[in-house]
Every structure is written in structure tokens, then in C-alpha cells.
Write a sequence for this structure.
């Protein structure tokens, strides 16, 4: 299996990862209230856990309902 065979599956995942990351970072930086934790904690979790896990954790556990 070479890279050309898996590239059509990989590109949408990479795009989705960056969209989630950008959305979560934008939301963290523009809001002051979180269900759990602080802004610094969520920035670290989202940036370090960049591969889907960090942004998804923030959206489920940290994002305060507007």
C-alpha cells in the first residue's frame, strides 16, 4: 500500500481535524466560562490533544452552552 492509495481517505480527516481545532480554539479564546476547568487548561488540552481528541473533549466537557 502506498501513499497515493490512502490519500483520498487521509485528506478529509486532516481537514476535519483542523476545522475542529480552529473552532475549539476560537471558542476558548472568545469565552470566559467553561463547564469544567479554565481557559489555560482547555488551551493545553486542545493543542496537545490536537488529533481530534482535544477539540472533541472541549466541545463535550468544556464548552458552556450559550
Amino acid at each position: 500500500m502506498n501513499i497515493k492509495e490512502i490519500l483520498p481517505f487521509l485528506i478529509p480527516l486532516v481537514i476535519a481535524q483542523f476545522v475542529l481545532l480552529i473552532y475549539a480554539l476560537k471558542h476558548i479564546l472568545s469565552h470566559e466560562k467553561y463547564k469544567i476547568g479554565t481557559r489555560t487548561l482547555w488551551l493545553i488540552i486542545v493543542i496537545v490533544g490536537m488529533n481530534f481528541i482535544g477539540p472533541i473533549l472541549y466541545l463535550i466537557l468544556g464548552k458552556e452552552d450559550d
The helical segments are 3-30, 39-48, 53-62. The chain is about 75% helix and 0% strand. The CA atoms of residues 11 and 17 lie 10 Å apart.
